[in-house]
Sequence to fold (111 residues):
Amino acid sequence: MSDADVEVVMASVRETIKTTLGYVAKIKGFDVKAIISLIADVVMAVERVAPTFGKLTGDEKKKVAISIINEFIDIPFLPEWMEAKVIGFAIDAIVGSANKWFGHLWGANDS
Fold:
């Protein structure tokens, strides 16, 4: 997936987030509850949007989610690349738990 393709998917996910969540404020600092909630919401939005762009791999969806989430999180004293790594680990944990609890179809569209 090219960077241009990632940007197109990100724009669609941003629109989905606006529709489902309304305004999302930038999270500053270590507000773990807000960060986990945002990550879960964005991961679900990526899962909802992904089928309209064909078959995206898990890594491609993760790349989109990390990019979107990193726009909303500002952890002082951490560079953006390190924030992205932390976000990636959190995504892996959330998706791994969802897969374990609900199977791999938890993000599938119900319609």
Observations:
- The longest strand covers residues 27-28.
- The radius of gyration is 13 Å.
- The helical segments are 3-21, 32-49, 58-72, 80-102.
- Residues 51 and 105 are 13 Å apart (CA to CA).
